[in-house]
Design goal:
The complex is a heterodimer. Chain A is elongated. Chain A has 21 helices and 3 strands. In chain A, helix 6 packs antiparallel against helix 7 and helix 16 crosses helix 19. Chain A folds into 2 domains: 322 residues, ABC transporter involved in vitamin B12 uptake, BtuC (Orthogonal Bundle); 165 residues, Arc Repressor Mutant, subunit A (Orthogonal Bundle), CATH 1.10.10.10. Helix content of chain A is 69%, strand content 2%.
């Protein structure tokens, strides 16, 4: 527990520029690869309808990638995961997660109207229709929040549901059409990756390349606008235009993803991978890359799972696998996960408990004028104000950490235990001294504070205290402050405590 | 090939009230009852800025309902309500848990919790399609057209109407009674939770009670309008009323009026276009909101424009 680790140390500017360059290079690489891949696969044949088959055969068929439908589904869901993951990162850090939800539901009437254009699944018409509807929806949301006293959540919910209702009306009208290819439009609700055609893939490839390209070119500007819009304005960046570009890219990504994941669950593919990534790392460009990767993997597994059965929707499976990733990150993420954090807290509690026992042993020795090297268990229990059983439990923890040995009814400190005990007592008394001398606090008010801070004073802080304090041999209550013996081979017994010698922390001068 | 049927006053405006009263009138009545209950809850949701919690709960009841079907194998209303409750409560816990134990913000936490649960529900419905008497269309659209066909409930010799209608009417009566009883507490905890707590009102109990009421309203509406359009019925009446007046009691009354107008407008729209009645009533509700937005005496665009013209 080094005190300095909590300080924020600014990186020198040169490494920042390097980080930006690194992120850009990676994003450009991804863009190039995606472009090539989409161009190559867009030529593949159209899919046949899925028939009733066993799921093991389906799994093999999926894994062998021999079927063009499978290749289309894989590529499409990966493209979707990348573009939604990247843009979702911006939505999540800007706390606009629910805008994605509203936008994705609001595109439904546009999809239906695009379908109406020539009554078949024309990717471009549907894309344009959905885009127009999405923009209309977000424009209405901002108009409502600006001109009425309704709050944003109300406006979002209202627009989401009304547009979606209009879309459902239009779709229920198509269902009466005798000629209409109904299966084409129904897959837009919950997604059907197996129904992706070459045209859809080309569209998704273009959109993903656009998203990756724009983010690579303007990464620094988008980052600044998202984290500190005020500063961005001061720098004379065109913040409103940057935000509009982000919204445009978002609408592109949502609309391109519709066919594979469905209107209802697109927003989940925006939010969940990005939120998962935010649990894994603290740096934004790494978060974007994680988010894109998680999006792609969830997309792939969604495509795979929905391929196992007949006519299963892809979107829900995709969202479920993304949800599993989120759950795993929530629990096991090394930095922010519940389990590692709980472990850290537990080991810290253990350490604090050990240090308190060590301190008590030191105090028992000290009160007797360091008569020998051992302490009776009863004296320790009395000092800690606990019963014998609890004292034996605490000693057991020390013995396991090799800080002490227990023989019969007496405890003896090992050299490392003696060192730790001296260090903790020294921390405590130095802090009391500092509080009374530098902070002018009465000597009878400083103990409780020191009792807490003794466990977390790092070496740098102890050195600083030693430098500041004129005398470091006696604490405000008149007891000597021990120095910390060097971990000499064979160690030192409590008896040969160096008297008043201030040789610094850890025994170094 | 006719996408939009030919318009005739007789077919669109007269028939639903005369020959079609048994089907269209019944559907409009059900929509009105759903809209009333949801609108009453929704007014308080809007005040507390919890509109999207309604969205979340309306999505996440789906897996609860699907699991209840799978376990009981029937459409027992008790199992369905119980399953939906459990799911709604699970959403609540998930959102709280995610925001407490991680640094994910509440908006993203709501989005994650309800979309994952909804996805689970759709997967259950799709995978066990042969065992669950629900389909993806019903999840989205509700099954309003089926309700008039159900055999009516009889009380003695009196025919009360189809079971969903009776349930919804009961829920509405219970809602109005509860609202009358706890109106003061609800109002104070919504506007000034600090003062309410200082006066000794059980703020968090009122909050949980409201969530319970919301869950009930959502479960009852699921059958009628499906999982997604519920949010419109929750928010639109309250939002329209909030544009028209600032006082709470008139807001509640206007919400009821809005529900009635949307039900009637939706009926005519769905007859005119021959489209999904649930979707049509939501579109009608949106249209009434737009009218209020344009012509509200205090905040409307047109009166404001008129006044500014007079001033110039």
């Amino acid at each position: 527990m080094d005190g300095s680790s909590t300080q924020w140390i600014p990186r020198p500017p040169s490494t920042r520029v390097d980080a930006f360059r690194g992120a850009r290079r990676i994003l450009r690489g991804v863009a190039g690869w995606l472009w090539l891949a989409s161009a190559a696969l867009a030529q593949a044949a159209k899919i046949g309808d899925l028939t009733e088959v066993r799921w093991t055969e389906q799994a093999l068929r999926f894994a062998s990638l021999s079927d063009p439908a499978v290749r289309h589904a894989c590529l499409g869901t990966v493209l979707l995961g990348v573009s939604c993951g990247l843009l979702g990162g911006f939505l999540v850090v800007r706390r606009m997660a629910l805008l994605g939800d509203a936008l994705s539901h609001a595109v439904l009437p546009g999809v239906a109207l695009g379908f109406l254009w020539n009554l078949e699944k024309d990717p471009l018409a549907i894309f344009v229709g959905a885009l127009v509807a999405g923009f209309a929806g977000s424009a209405v949301v901002s108009l409502i929040t600006r001109t009425t006293r309704l709050k944003e959540d109300t406006a979002l919910g209202m627009v989401l549901a009304t547009f979606f209702g209009a879309g459902l009306c239009l779709m229920s009208m198509f269902q009466r059409l005798p000629t209409g290819n109904k299966s084409g439009i129904e897959s837009f609700l919950f997604g059907q990756a197996a129904a992706l055609g070459p045209g859809d893939l080309q569209l998704m490839g273009v959109v993903t390349a656009l998203v990756v390209g724009m983010l690579a070119v303007g990464y620094k500007e988008f980052l600044l606008v998202s984290f500190d819009p005020g500063f961005a304005r001061v720098l004379a960046l065109p913040t409103r235009w940057l935000e509009r570009v982000l919204l445009l890219l978002l609408a592109f990504a949502v609309v391109a993803a519709l066919q594979a994941v469905g209107v209802v669950l697109v927003s989940a593919m925006l939010i969940i991978p990005a939120a998962t990534a935010s649990l894994l790392t603290d740096r934004f460009h790494r978060m974007l890359l994680w988010s894109a990767a998680i999006g792609a993997v969830s997309g792939l597994s969604g495509a795979f799972l929905s391929f196992l059965g007949t006519r299963l929707p892809t979107g829900p499976f995709m969202v479920l696998s993304a949800g599993l990733f989120f759950g795993a990150a929530l629990v096991f993420s090394p930095r922010h996960g519940v389990w590692p954090r709980w472990n850290r807290q537990r080991s810290q509690r253990l350490r604090v408990a050990q240090e308190n026992t060590l301190k008590a042993i030191y105090q028992v020795l000290e009160s007797g004028g360091f008569p020998g090297e051992t302490v009776p268990v009863g004296a320790l229990a009395a000092r800690r104000r606990i019963d014998r059983e609890a004292a034996l439990g605490e000693i057991g923890a020390l013995v396991r950490g090799e800080f002490a040995t227990l023989s019969g009814d007496t405890v003896a400190l090992t050299p490392s235990g003696w060192q730790r005990a001296c260090a903790i007592v020294r921390n405590h008394r130095l802090w009391e001294l500092y509080l009374t001398q530098d902070a002018c606090i009465a000597p009878d008010h400083v103990h409780d504070d020191a009792e807490k801070i003794e466990h977390v004073l790092g070496e740098a802080t102890v050195r600083e205290l030693e430098r500041r304090l004129p005398r470091t041999d006696v604490d405000p209550h008149g007891r000597p402050i021990p120095s910390v013996p060097a971990p000499a081979p064979g160690g030192r017994a409590p008896g040969d405590r160096p008297q008043g010698g201030v040789i610094g922390y850890g025994g170094r001068p | 090939m006719t996408l939009v049927p030919d318009f005739s006053v007789q077919r669109v405006f007269v028939d639903p009230w005369t020959t079609g009263i048994d089907s269209h009138g019944m559907m409009a009545l059900v929509t009105f009852l759903v809209g009333c209950t949801c609108g009453l809850v929704g007014n308080f949701l809007i005040l507390r800025r919890m509109a999207l919690m309604g969205d979340a709960i309306s999505h996440s009841v789906l897996p609860g309902i699907a699991v209840a079907f799978l376990l009981t194998g029937s459409r027992g209303i008790g199992a369905m309500v119980l399953g939906a409750f459990v799911a709604a409560f699970a959403t609540h816990l998930l959102v709280e848990g995610i925001t407490r134990y991680s640094r994910v913000r509440p908006d993203a936490a709501i989005g994650i919790a309800f979309s994952t649960l909804f996805a689970l529900g759709v997967v259950l419905v799709a995978v066990f399609a042969d065992r669950v008497d629900l389909d993806q269309d019903c999840v989205l659209n509700g099954e309003l057209p089926m309700i008039p066909l159900e055999p009516p409930v009889h009380l003695g010799s009196l025919s009360l109407g189809p079971p969903p209608l009776v349930r919804l009417a009961g829920l509405l009566v219970a809602s109005v009674l509860l609202l009358a009883l706890f109106y003061k507490e609800l109002l104070l905890t919504s506007f000034d939770p600090g003062l309410a707590a200082a006066l000794g009102l059980p703020v968090s109990a009122v909050h949980h009670g409201l969530m319970l009421w919301l869950a009930l309203a959502v479960v009852a509406s699921f059958e009628a309008v499906g999982a997604i359009l519920v949010i419109a019925l929750l928010i639109l009446p309250g939002a329209t009323a909030a544009i028209l007046t600032e006082r709470m009691v008139p807001r509640l009354v206007l919400g009821v009026v809005h529900a009635a107008l949307s039900a009637i407008g939706g009926m005519h729209l769905s007859v005119a276009l021959d489209c999904s009645p649930a979707g049509a009533s939501v579109v009608a509700g949106g249209a009434w909101f737009t009218l209020a937005w344009l012509f509200s005496p205090t905040a409307g665009w047109v009166p404001r424009w008129w006044r500014s013209r007079g001033a110039a």
